[in-house]
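In the laboratory, one determines a bound structure by crystallizing the protein with its ligand and collecting diffraction data. In a computational setting the workflow is compressed into a single prediction: the sequence and the ligand go in, and a structural description comes out. We illustrate the idea with GN1.
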Amino acid sequence: MAERVEKIIGKFNFAGELVEFASFGNGNINDTYLVRFANHEMEKPYILQKINGFVFSEPWKLIENTLSVTRHLREKIRKQRGDPDRETLTLIESETGNAFYRDDRGEYWCAYLFIDHTKAYDKTDNPWIFYQAGKAFGRFQCYLSDYPAHTLYETIPDFHNTKVRYEAFLEAVKNDTFYRAESVRHEIDFVCQREGDTGVITDLLCSGQIPLRVTHNDTKLNNVLMDSETMEGVCVIDLDTVMPGSALYDFGDAIRSGANKSTEDEQDIAKVQLDMELFEAFTKGFLGEVTLTPKEIEYLPFSAKLISLELGMRFLTNYLNGDKYFKTAYEGHNRNRAKVQFRLVREMEQKTEEMKKIVARYAGGETR
Ligand code: ADP
Ligand code: GN1
Ligand code: MG
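The predicted complex, in structure-token form:
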């Protein structure tokens, strides 16, 4: 593998001589490497990534989207007198003059400037950090609010269409290819009892009650780089799933990932709790940067619950289908991840009133 990666590194227009490279980060989807180059004056690190071809069947769409969106963001950052090389991703050209390299196996690779003096947190109990994440994702959405959403490709069709995800889940239960359904009967029932929730956001979008926006769609805490000293949000990364969507997806996904007291694959289910201080911190940061419609605000607490249910359903579907999508470390990993999300759903059902009060504090008005 190392030999193969080194060969790919040689295909990109990196400056200087290769010093070393190593696997980097904790992404569930792509293979990421930190690549160090240097010349006589300085070190220059880069990020190299193999795009997961099972997840992204048309990787060029993801690259086109990333190029268009970062071009737009660069302009906005420049106008704010910021540093575009630090505050958004910069793709590096390969020898073919493209922002990617397609290897002899047909796999796509991308490279980016490494954003130094930053840290990606997988988890935090520090409200300041999560407040900064809220600001960064809110600003991201605000900067893209004048970008024509419908011109972007859907890199993964129906990515946050919870209704479609529910149908895929039912199909996996019906086929039960790996004879695993019996062992997760309780979890299957849990999802089926909530079928009525699955169409709520898609129906709001279809009926035009909430606007279609450019959204990130994968607003995990570790998809925003924080300044190592100030811990301020510097750059929103992982733009693979930037697509037309709803602001509710970004809010909901961030809360389900960052306001959970436990990790995403915690085995002691009692540790899975919605931290209201973290919920408040993110809400304050996000709503301080982006202006949402009253209808969107109304559904913010619900979105956190729905995206938790959706991801739990996705983990469970993957478990039933033989673990082909999310990287796993052991058998049953996706089943445990699903259980965590479902416990979070319960937590959110119990804490709905509290969530509503907090959202109202930072947005004003009624919330669902
Ligand atoms: P995945 O889609 O697999 O989650 P990411 O694009 O999020 O992959 O990258 C994985 C990790 O690599 C991130 O969480 C972050 O730690 C690091 N990373 C990615 N891009 C950069 C960058 N340009 N500069 C610094 N670190 C980065
Ligand atoms: C994946 O790539 P990563 O680890 O940032 C997934 C998200 C899930 C997340 C759960 C393209 O995100 O949708 O919420 O795992 N990304 C894709 O950890 O499916
Ligand atoms: Mg990521």
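The mean pLDDT is 96. Keep in mind that any predicted model is a hypothesis to be tested, not a measurement.
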